[in-house]
Amino acid sequence: MGLYRMAPPELKELRRQLKELLDTGFIQPSKAPYGASVLFQKKHDGSLWMCINYRALNKVTVKNKYPISLIVDLFNQLSRARYFTKLDLRLGYYQVRIAEGDELKTTGVTRYGSYKFLVMPFGLTNAPTTFCTLMNKIFHPYLDKFVVVYLDDIVIYNNTLKEHVKHLRKVFKILKQNELYVKAIQEWDPPTKVPQLKSFLGLVNYYRRFIKGYSVRAAPLTDLFKKNKTCEWDKRCQQAFENLKKVVTKEPVLALPDHTKVFEIHTDASDFAIGGFLMQDRHSIAFENRKLNDMERHYIVK
Prior knowledge:
The protein is α+β, with helices and mostly antiparallel strands. It folds into two domains: about 10-185, HIV Type 1 Reverse Transcriptase, Chain A, domain 1; about 190-300, 2-Layer Sandwich (Alpha-Beta Plaits), CATH 3.30.70. It contains nine helices and eleven strands. The chain has helices spanning about 10-25, 55-60, 70-80, 125-140, 160-180, 180-185, 195-205, 215-220, 235-250, and strands spanning about 25-30, 35-40, 50, 85-90, 110, 115, 145-150, 155-160, 265-270, 275-280, 285-290. Strands 1-6-5-2-3 form a five-stranded mixed β-sheet. A hairpin with a 2-residue loop joins strand 5 and strand 6 (about 115). Helix 8 packs antiparallel against helix 9. The longest helix is centred in the middle third of the chain and has 18 residues, at about 160-180.
């Protein structure tokens, strides 16, 4: 399909969103001889949302007839409750991996190249029903008891605060147990090409503030991009790869800061990296670390 014309501000936004998707490992460059056109849709807040016109692909796709609940019925279900919590899963569709071998079908064509999705993009005809099927499956025991699901929105409702807190914990436990996008990380095969390694590092880098000592853990992999260095996948690289997959999926979630309490700043340094982390009441708030450059490695560390 041909390219849609874009104004300079749209082209700037396109570059930004493509970089973000590449950095998080959601897309990769595609060599498919076909592709759908990319365009923008303006959101309610005036920002631009990148869309892909999958009309031709959707036309030949076998439709998933899984029923999606009517929102009127959901409102009726909620009418007698007093306490509500609405969870809007962040980029919910992107938590579902595209079936292996089908990635090329999702190729989008832009002025800056063609890209395929490794996760389920918006615009596919079966994306809403696929995600709804997944949500209804994992919450099946609690549907219409204290949970309703509409597309990627989850609503927990109760008559008492005590029940509400109890059921919120159940819902969070289910989300954690299913690890929707985490499973995709755990099953990630060792990269065999530079773009694959860049995609993996882009994804784990997205979570670096949750990982203590990220720069040290990732060093064997990031060192492969150094000039005048042989790009060889050895035992250290494999160990670093497996370790990063593990910590991304198992590290504890950071606590929210309480500005009425005292903060603690802890710092550390080694021969090739520096780092620090912020704590409150023995709970981690944030991590920050980076590798030292060649000049900084000559500094004295005490």
